[in-house]
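Quick one: structure for this chain?
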Amino acid sequence: MKIVVLKSVCPPFDPRIFQKELKALVNAGHEVTQICPYDKQEDRVSGVRLLGFPLHTRFILRPLNWARLWSIMRREPAGAYHFSDPELLPLAWLLARVSGLPVVFDCFEHYSKAIMSDERFPGFLRPSLARLYGFLERKIAESLAAVVVPAIDEKGERRFHQVRRLVLVRNFPWQDTFESLPEEGARKRQLVYIGDISESRRGMSSLVEMLSLMHNKDVKLLFIGKVDTPQTQLRLESVAATTQVSDQFHLVGEVPYAEIKSYLVESAVGLIPLKAIPRWETDIPQKMFEYMACRLPFVASDLYPPRKFAGETQAGLVVEPQSAQAFADAVDFLLDHPTEARQMGERGRRAFLEKYNMEVESQKLVALYESLSKETPMPEKDG
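Got it. Here's what it folds into:
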């Protein structure tokens, strides 16, 4: 089946769609073309054909992105369309009606809940904006062939209960990425966090404060990833200076994904700080499974997704969100009890290999497109 992926904002090589879902579809024998903002007009990467157009980032100019995408798309034969940017929902509705082909909405975030904590909008407007977006998303999704989600909330995915197909494809790592781990020696007295570094969404400064509250003082804390704003970096550095832990705290910056595991296998504890905000009621932090893959016990905020997987695997601990003292106590426990920590790591590795990996999870997406291909006529070939 020829699948055309549409992006207007999402990066061309994002970790969920390109690195996981499209890899799975290509491996299953599907022909995949991605139309997206890109610095080349045409390219081929990892078996995916890319058709690019210049990106306008200013909100007022966004319709130019949509026009370019539509212009390229209407010249490209397709058997199905796949998109994720929520701003493309109206275009997707129109595309489904005009083309008669299956259109799949990859809703990889609970956008209504994300709006509730989005500081770009005034606080008093957020509930109304979230309700309006939720209504439009639900109505358009019900007219499409399928919706793919990365998580089901604690009370069920009520917003999509009337869609034609609802497919859960969780954001697990590829097993082959972590198949050959660097040789594991004695783990360093090192704590690690990988991912976006944000004060507004994760309360990262509580982890810096944590260092001053631990009785294990001979540890260092690594933050690996992109700092979201200069204000966040200033906040972290200020807290480190105030609590006199600047020599223990290190902002490593972004590193290539293939190198992440070298940091994880040498660390003692992985950290997953999450604020108690609506988006984290459903979103599953991928880093939890990357820690498991590297036999790294973790300490996470006690919210539904981490609590669920920590309970199922017994691979980590959950504590009160944003409590520097609670994180300090849990990390001290793991450092003081290396046998228990090692057993947690082994349980996590075993769970990752058996079921929490993309090789297993992606089969649901492949099955969706196999079923759609049986219902859809083959597109005509050019020429």
